[in-house]
Amino acid sequence: MKKIASLLIVISILCISSYAVFASGVTFYQDIQLSGPSTNDIPVGTWYLSDLQSKFGFQNDWASSVSISPGYKVDLYSDDKLGGTHWMLDQNDFNSRDFTNFGANDAVSSVKVSRK
């Protein structure tokens, strides 16, 4: 029984480590501090609202925080097709965990994800 438990722990650690290695791009969350419902990982690209909704589960004017993978940055836009107010975040930006800090809370409609 102890061997099975040990094996399950090792497998769990490997799965978590593999996810961290392969995670890329950004993930948006409905609530601040990376909590609440989230999108699927959004890879490098320019993403308009229709694609964000159909491919990643993003909702218009819904996001309150974003997890950004190492080596990536994200440009947020208040309007579809990269229009309106523009904000840029990277993984080191404290504001990525709370959009209320800079006026982007529940205001994002399109994004551009890129490598730094």
Detail the topology: elements first, then pairings.
Blueprint (H helix, E strand, L loop, with lengths): L1 H21 L3 E6 L3 E4 L6 E3 L1 H8 L8 E4 L3 E8 L3 E8 L19 E6 L1
Antiparallel strand pairs: 1-2, 1-4, 3-7, 5-6, 5-7
How does the overall form come out from the CA principal axes?
globular
The CATH superfamily is: Crystallins
Number of domains: 1
* Rg measurement, Å: 16 Å
Query: What percent of residues adopt helix (DSSP H or I)?
Result: 25-40%
What does this structure look like?
It is a single chain. The chain has helices at 2-22, 49-56, and strands at residues 26-31, 35-38, 45-47, 65-68, 72-79, 83-90, 110-115. It has 116 residues and is an alpha+beta fold. The protein has a single domain, classed as Gamma-B Crystallin, domain 1. The strands form two sheets. Strands 3-7-5-6 form a four-stranded antiparallel β-sheet. The protein has a three-stranded antiparallel β-sheet with strand order 2-1-4, with no helix packed on it. The longest helix is centred in the N-terminal third of the chain and has 21 residues, at 2-22. It is globular and about 55 Å long. The model is unreliable at 7-21 (pLDDT under 50).
Features of this protein?
116 residues, Gamma-B Crystallin, domain 1, 4-stranded antiparallel beta sheet, 3-stranded antiparallel beta sheet, 2 helices, 25% helix
In short:
This protein is of the alpha+beta class. The chain has helices at residues 2-22, 49-56; strands at 26-31, 35-38, 45-47, 65-68, 72-79, 83-90, 110-115. Mean pLDDT is 87; it is low at 7-21.
